[in-house]
Design brief:
11 strands, alpha+beta, two-stranded antiparallel sheet
Length: 226
């Protein structure tokens, strides 16, 4: 009974407060280039963090985390998500909301969004310090027995769990509070300053690059897409 009440209270909260519209916030000064998502590849020389913020037609709907490391491999965390579940035509093994076999590539997950209501999607890319990347990967895999992270996530808690994880294991760069709404997490990620950003929307797939020699405040100024 208590679980059902919490579920409907969350639904009511989403209805009353609402997420941001399906148009993500984008920095004013960044340059945009159309790219082919099928050609995306992991950096073979540096650990990389990707954070996916997904928007349906009326609200922000999901958050996903992916870390790739040249020596440690890739971790894909889809908290309370659907990748690999029987409801969708993608076969993959999930363990505590980690997708472990096979681990999706960037192109795999972008393609998967065709099976779900997806009006747009931001993919924030951050280059990671190798020490921080190791700590994050070991915590997610449960290899760090002193501080393993509970990756199994309840519905509507994807953004909260990921932002709490970043604050705990992401080093100084990701010191932040927990964000319930994915678009609030996205706003914080813009403030932090990603190394690059990918955007999927109804018109195509784009790479956004921050300008050189711009202050953080200039980089973080945002506008809504038309």
């Amino acid at each position: 009974m208590l679980v059902n009440m919490r579920f409907w209270l969350m639904i009511l909260l989403l209805g009353l407060c609402g997420c941001h519209s399906p148009n993500p916030h984008l920095p004013v000064f960044w340059t945009r280039t159309a790219v082919d998502p099928l050609l995306l590849a992991d950096d073979a020389s540096h650990p990389t963090l990707h954070l996916f913020i997904i928007y349906s037609s009326n609200l922000c709907s999901h958050t996903v985390l992916r870390i790739s490391d040249p020596s440690l491999g890739t971790v894909f965390w889809d908290p309370a998500g659907g990748y690999g579940k029987p409801d969708y035509p993608v076969v993959a093994r999930r363990v505590r909301d980690l997708v472990v076999n096979p681990v999706p590539s960037l192109a795999d997950y972008i393609h998967f969004r065709n099976y779900l209501p997806t009006a747009s999607m931001e993919i924030f890319e951050f280059l990671l310090d190798p020490v921080v990347a190791r700590e994050m990967i070991e915590a997610l895999r449960g290899e760090d027995t002193s501080s393993p992270w509970n990756t199994r996530t309840q519905a509507f808690q994807c953004s909260s769990n990921i932002s709490s994880f970043l604050a705990t294991h992401g080093g100084e760069r990701f010191r932040m509070k927990s964000f319930f709404f994915p678009h609030d997490l996205a706003a914080q990620l813009y403030e932090i300053g990603p190394d690059r950003l990918y955007l999927l929307n109804q018109t195509g797939f784009y790479l956004y690059l921050p300008p050189p020699n711009k202050s953080l405040n200039q980089m973080a100024r945002t506008q809504d897409l038309p």
